[in-house]
Write the structure tokens for this entry.
Amino acid sequence: SPSDPALVERARAAKEKLGDKVFVLGHHYQRDEVIQFADVTGDSFKLARDAAARPEAEYIVFCGVHFMAESADILTSDDQKVVLPDLAAGCSMADMATAEQVAECWDVLTEAGVAEQVVPVSYMNSSADIKAFTGKHGGTICTSSNAKRALDWAFEQGEKVLFLPDQHLGRNTAVRDMGMSLGDCVVYNPHKPNGGLTTDELRAAKMILWRGHCSVHGRFGLDSVNDVRARIPGVNVLVHPECKHEVVAAADYVGSTEYIIKALEAAPAGSKWAIGTELNLVRRLANRFAPEGKEIVFLDRTVCFCSTMNRIDLPHLVWTLESLAEGNLVNRIQVDQETEAFAKLALERMLALP
Ligand code: 13P
Ligand code: SF4
């Protein structure tokens, strides 16, 4: 829907007043009304790097979700303030792994005698506590654009990986990109004693996948792929690696949001695409590439926004920018120092991946 012109003007004026003091980052899943004010847009990896590359900005306004703002705070200097326009913009996947559960899991691995062979690899979509756990135990962070490189690195350090918290990204990367079999992967369920696994299963596994998932990408099924192929002959199916393994296995291309955009930029006129990721991004891409004769549709017939990404709307952005312009620091995201030190270690290992 078109944004309210009065709010657009207020956001513009407040941003102009702040000038170089503010830098606005926008994740690809953000609404159009918010994206229009982003100084840069990107996937989780690009935004983490971009946040760290703006030392002159006093305020980093992060239009995305809580774990992204935490990562930006970890990677920026102490006098830079990271602001999340709505504190309720969390991520249900990140919430699926708590510090207590992960500590308990490590105890289970220790009891089974495998902990010393295990390297944790945590998806960016996790809390700062989980990133700190990862750093403390010699592991790295990954995003959907460098998961293979992170796993290559991890298997140089140890024999097994504990992959947190997205089982699908872990399984898809292991099987699709690393040549492992489904049987090399086991799923650790934090709600069951010993994760629901026997000692023998833990000893045999190469990939121990945390039982977490994205509720947005989890809605796509094999039916979505079969339906769209029947509906649109010759369609290219392109999905995000947070989708279930059966969806990824049936797709033609798989990649992060940044990869999806690049693939569509490079696509020839007249080509047809069904995209399996969040709907704000797919709609924006469909509108952007329609004049070039590229037909882009959403993979499923049902509507599929990320509800927490959508919490950041124009009214929240206006309130944030106007507050900062008046000298009121609102909604600051600040990770405590000890957590930050270990989480930073894990994030820096990711940034140093070849
Ligand atoms: P990327 O932007 O890294 O592809 O991640 C998708 C996502 O789910 C972010 O929450
Ligand atoms: Fe979390 Fe999924 Fe939303 Fe990304 S799309 S923020 S993983 S719930």
Summary: The chain has a mean pLDDT of 96.
